């Protein structure tokens, strides 16, 4: 039975000394005495702490660092998720059901099948139906692209009731 505790202690020691081990790196990151120069450690008054008090302070600091790291990780993941949703809106039924509101820069001269509409947000949509909007003219027109059933999207130019079925190509 004595061999098992010795083997266990030896294994823990080996893990703690192995520089690539995450647990060893984590405890080193939060250990104030290792992170500060001796002058900084004394100037902060930390040399007056008992080993138990210093260990408690290091444990508290490690917990705060871990908590802050987790919050930053979660915020970064959510920001990345939102970026993917915004960038891919219009491809299939990806993202929200909210309409896409944008400006169609340059001259607008009505609807036509297979016409591409380049929006100011970088998206490019192509008309897939035969909808027409004869006589419609204007520059820098505001448009709304709304999702419909089964992945269909509709483009509508402000000031007109006619909608054209479109699909996102870029």
What is the arithmetic mean of pLDDT? 80
| Main sheet: strands, sense, barrel | 6 strands, antiparallel
Sketch the topology as an H/E string, one letter per element: HHHHHEEEEEE
Helix count from the secondary structure assignment = 5
| Number of DSSP-assigned strands | 6
> What is the number of domains?
2
The proportion of residues in beta strands is: 15-25%
Query: Which stretches of 5+ consecutive residues score pLDDT under 50?
Result: 1-28
Provide the gyration radius in Å: 31 Å
| Structural class assignment | alpha+beta
The CA-CA distance between the termini, in Å, is 68 Å
- Spatial strand arrangement across the major sheet: 1-4-5-6-3-2
From the spread of the alpha carbons, the general shape counts as: rod-shaped
- In which range does the helix fraction lie? 40-55%
What can you see in these coordinates?
The chain has 170 residues and is of the alpha+beta class. It folds into two domains: 85 residues, no CATH class; 69 residues. The chain is built from five helices and six strands; from the N terminus they run αααααββββββ. Strands 1-4-5-6-3-2 form a six-stranded antiparallel sheet, with no helix packed on it. The protein starts with a helix and ends with a strand. 9% of the residues are buried.
